[in-house]
Request: fold
Amino acid sequence: MEGEIDHRGTRRDFIHGELHRRDLNIDPFRQFADWLAAATEAGNFDATAMALATADAEGHPDVRFVLLKHFDERGLCWYTDQRSQKGQELAVNPQAAAVFYWPENDRQVRVNGPVERLSDAEAEAYFQQRPGSSRFAAAASEQSQPIANRAALEQRVIDLQARYPTGDVPRNPAWGGYRLLPERFEFWQGRRSRLHDRFLYQRSEDTGGVWVIQRLMP
Reply:
């Protein structure tokens, strides 16, 4: 590449809404559920996609998109191969940050906190809900490990399909789930002239576990 690619003149205004303290649910999980539903209703076909950031033992960060699969007042859950890079990082540094971005509503949500592994029973239950092709893909792949070429990867699936012709391929014990246990939520609403609305929910021992809401400057 020759020369600089300049996007300093690329901009748009945020016109879809505003956010006031009176609009917020006292429970950040309910607030999150409302915004997730609104994103879906606005036409976002990947509203559950979240950028998940982890770091290794030395603090080197890494980020990728994963799909949120379920959540409740305990936390936000997703599934993956625990031999993957994120799995290895979470094994030595079980902390993560996630962000959801919904441009249809000019909104984003950031979540931070420790991470715990889901039980084998929870992983098995979700694995069996997946389409057969997804189960075979998960069983065939050692996520993040090198492979010679695409043909070799597809052959691994073919071999498993021959071994399990009825489709009952077993879940590899390394394939499982995680739960992010939020200590902080931040709700961001884009506003005109970049004077955005930001509200932080934070829970600490000082508040007896009660969520405290604070407006932040943009």
Notes: The mean pLDDT is 95. The chain has one domain: 21-216.
